[in-house]
């Protein structure tokens, strides 16, 4: 099988400096899986927190399944992320640091299961964002110069 990208949070890498990332499984209902197969997910503004010893995913919008019936899911419901206990303990320590948060970076299929890449990040200041744009534009310009030779 392999890996197939469902959605990517591009603003996550722009607004946050990602220090490390890890993979987590997602606990979903049937109609959520069908919506994900159709690519109906919005990762923007979503985040992960540790509540009652569990890693939970908040504000993720998985649209209601178009052909769903009365058992359709709530698009903005809180979802549980599946990680090992020792990873949760490490994340508790990491997120206690000032200014660090857990940001979903991308959702993808891996061997028939939905996985979420979570990044531990620190919010960027405005001047950091400007520097990122400057570096990106310079890389493009450098590519054009090299191609022209």
From TrEMBL:
SUPFAM superfamilies: Small protein B (SmpB). Pfam families: SmpB. It is found in: Cytoplasm. The keyword Cytoplasm applies. It comes from the Bacteria. The keyword Isomerase does not apply. CDD domains: SmpB. Keywords: Cytoplasm, RNA-binding. Required for rescue of stalled ribosomes mediated by trans-translation. Binds to transfer-messenger RNA (tmRNA), required for stable association of tmRNA with ribosomes. tmRNA and SmpB together mimic tRNA shape, replacing the anticodon stem-loop with SmpB. tmRNA is encoded by the ssrA gene; the 2 termini fold to resemble tRNA(Ala) and it encodes a 'tag peptide', a short internal open reading frame. During trans-translation Ala-aminoacylated tmRNA acts like a tRNA, entering the A-site of stalled ribosomes, displacing the stalled mRNA. Belongs to the SmpB family. This is SsrA-binding protein. It comes from Candidatus Magnetaquiglobus chichijimensis. The lineage of its organism: Bacteria, Pseudomonadati, Pseudomonadota, Magnetococcia, Magnetococcales.
């Amino acid at each position: 099988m392999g890996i197939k990208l469902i959605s990517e949070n591009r603003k996550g890498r722009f607004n946050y400096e990602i220090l490390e990332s890890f993979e987590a499984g997602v606990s979903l209902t049937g109609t959520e899986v069908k919506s994900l197969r159709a690519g109906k997910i919005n990762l923007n503004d979503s985040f992960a927190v540790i509540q009652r010893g569990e890693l939970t995913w908040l504000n993720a919008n998985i649209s209601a399944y178009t052909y769903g019936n009365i058992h359709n899911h709530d698009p903005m419901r809180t979802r549980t992320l599946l990680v090992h206990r020792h990873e949760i303990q490490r994340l508790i320590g990491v997120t206690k640091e000032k200014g660090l948060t857990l940001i979903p970076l991308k959702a993808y299929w891996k061997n028939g299961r939905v996985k979420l890449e979570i990044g531990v990040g620190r919010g960027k200041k405005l001047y950091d964002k400007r520097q990122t744009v400057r570096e990106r534009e310079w890389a493009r310009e450098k590519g054009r110069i090299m191609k022209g030779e």
